[in-house]
């Protein structure tokens, strides 16, 4: 079950989660938290749904069908975070993957100070895997400790101490020829993976990674394997991404169904409908 905002480009948000989960053989359930007006360049408007509507969507589905994993994305407001936390508390044995969407790739801000504080206080203790990029990790860690730590391991330590089971900090925004992603647990680093840095800017890479982890956990993979295979899938989505508009590239989440596979420099031929 994905809680996220709707993205009309299908590059990020609820639609990105749906595509990723379906590509992993899962049947996605979707709970809309907000509506957006956006294109591949950026977000122009965001309208959060009334929190009661969010809770009612989730409760209706959960009373009808079993859910193997929860994935959280852009949640919209303090009130929405509160009602989602209430829902998750009723399913303590179902894994929760949280992608803390605080801003768009262009820098459009999605979460104010109160929203970030609510996310940290109410959702981190319910989260099995948090998937922040390095900018998000530092911002969330600042909420927990005052000063903004430069060291990402210190960020992860604060987030785990706040109740989060594991933190996968992605290094796309850090310098270097390789992108280094590190999974942290209660005793420090669990695994570290580095990937070739791809050219271009991508819309929805974080949504893809978090949804892939949730899908792997839903299928019963151990956490370490779920994180590793989700990274492999996401890298291929980006390597075979395409640029349908004037802004960012979109990940090709259906690359497994595309034949033949293409080189990272060669973009997939995708029809828009």
> How far do the termini sit from each other?
25 Å
Bin the helical content. Answer: 25-40%
CATH class: Alpha Beta
CATH topology: UDP-N-acetylmuramoyl-L-alanine:D-glutamate ligase
Number of helices: 8
CATH structural architecture: 3-Layer(aba) Sandwich
How would you classify the helix and strand content by structural class? alpha/beta
Overall average pLDDT = 92
Major β-sheet strand ordering: 3-2-1-4-5-6-7-8-9
Shape: globular
Q: Round the Cα radius of gyration to an integer and report it.
A: 17 Å
- Biggest sheet features: 9 strands, mixed
The tally of beta strands, per DSSP, is: 9
What labels would you give this structure?
single chain; about 270 residues; alpha/beta; UDP-N-acetylmuramoyl-L-alanine:D-glutamate ligase; nine-stranded mixed β-sheet; about 20% strand
Write the layout of secondary structure elements.
Blueprint: E1 2-6, H1 13-23, E2 30-38, E3 43-48, H2 51-62, E4 70-72, H3 78-89, E5 96-98, H4 113-123, E6 129-130, H5 134-145, H6 152-161, E7 166-169, E8 178-185, E9 188-196, H7 205-218, H8 223-239
Parallel strand pairs: 1-2, 1-4, 4-5, 5-6, 6-7
Antiparallel strand pairs: 2-3, 7-8, 8-9
Helix pairs in contact: 1-7, 2-3, 3-4, 5-6, 7-8
């Amino acid at each position: 079950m994905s809680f996220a905002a709707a993205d009309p480009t299908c590059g990020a948000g609820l639609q990105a989660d749906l595509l990723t989960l379906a590509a992993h053989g899962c049947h996605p359930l979707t709970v809309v938290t907000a509506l957006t007006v956006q294109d591949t360049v950026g977000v122009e408007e965001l309208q959060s749904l009334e929190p009661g509507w969010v809770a009612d969507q989730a409760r209706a589905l959960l009373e009808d069908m079993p859910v193997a994993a929860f994935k959280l994305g852009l949640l919209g407001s303090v009130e929405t975070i509160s009602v989602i936390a209430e829902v998750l508390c009723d399913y303590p044995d179902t894994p929760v993957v949280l992608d803390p969407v605080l801003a768009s790739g262009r820098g459009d801000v999605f979460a104010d100070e109160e929203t970030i504080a609510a996310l940290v206080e109410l959702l981190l203790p319910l989260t099995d895997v948090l998937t922040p990029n390095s900018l998000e990790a530092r911002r969330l860690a600042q909420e927990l400790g005052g000063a903004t730590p430069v060291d990402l391991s210190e960020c992860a330590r604060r987030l785990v101490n706040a109740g989060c089971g594991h933190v996968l900090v992605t290094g796309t925004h850090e310098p270097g020829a390789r992108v280094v992603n590190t999974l942290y647990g209660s005793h420090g680093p669990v695994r570290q993976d580095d990937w070739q840095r791809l050219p271009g800017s991508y819309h929805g890479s974080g949504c893809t990674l978090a949804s892939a982890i949730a899908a792997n956990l839903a299928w019963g993979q151990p956490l370490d394997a779920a994180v590793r295979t989700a990274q492999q899938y996401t890298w291929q989505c980006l390597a075979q991404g395409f640029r349908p508009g004037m802004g960012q590239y979109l990940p090709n989440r259906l690359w497994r169904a595309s034949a033949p596979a293409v080189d990272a420099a060669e973009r997939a031929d995708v029809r828009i409908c």
